[in-house]
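[User]
Protein folding is very new to me. Any chance you could explain this protein sequence and its structure tokens? I have pasted everything here:
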Amino acid sequence: MNNTNKKRVGLGRGLGALLQDSDSVNNSRPSATPLSALEHISSMNEINVNFIETNPFQPRTHFDEESLAELAESIRIQGIIQPITVRQLGREQYQLISGERRLQASKRAGLTHIPAYIRTANDQQMLEMALIENIQRENLNAIEIALSYQRLISECNLRQEELGDRVGKNRTTVNNYIRLLKLPPVIQAALRDNKISMGHARAIINIDDVDTQLSLFKRIVDEDWSVRRVEEEVRKIQNPELAQDKTKKVPLKQEIRNLQFRLSSYFGSKVSIKSDEKDKGEIRIPFTNQEDLDRILGVLGELS
């Protein structure tokens, strides 16, 4: 067999480490293999669009129709610039790994064949590649990103620090997204639909009581509050004395409360700060279990 030079094709930061060059295509359903042993074919093939089935692990739940129509028109004029990626299940049978928008738009543009890279992967590898590919290459909304992070942790058995390395984000960022999934469904839906921003949601989540969260959310939407206004309201809810005595000026105390709010958001825990009249005090960061403690220690490690 003659050796040929193959050019590695990256799927995005982090995925290059998951994939190694291979000289053959597996024509049957791939069996489970360690992620480090994952192989792929880097040559490009023209595949009949009717031979490609959708990705059952697709993390994206919504595709903008107008954007899809614009992409279809672009493909009609310029063709496919970036090939899709598939895995081969059998003869003339493929399953999409990444590029669902390109595939859908190509069908709309009337293409019968589409350029594709063929890779081999088992179901878990499919899920991980699809999730990471989408996180890095698509403009997912905050909830879709959070769900993708959560699936990578729970279904691909990744720890938060490993996940951060795979997607190029630090553990704090990953944790801030995952915390959004603790919000009531109606608030998650509003964040998904861009009725509120990530900043609004991160402020709301610092309130423990669900009814208070929902009440605050209603006022945010009805009165079109800014993120700063929401943060101020959350501080008042957490410290009722601020609302009761608006005339009382305590610059240092207010500064500490602001710091307490920022630290709570940063660590993903309800941080408390106590100080006396001589500006002496303590900072407490609570944790619920060993895993939560490890997470907080990891965040502290990032600051060093």
Observations:
- The mean pLDDT is 76.
- The two ends are 53 Å apart (CA to CA).
- The beta strands are 20-21, 39-48, 52-53, 84-90, 93-98, 113-119, 272-275, 281-284.
- Residues 195 and 221 are 7 Å apart (CA to CA).
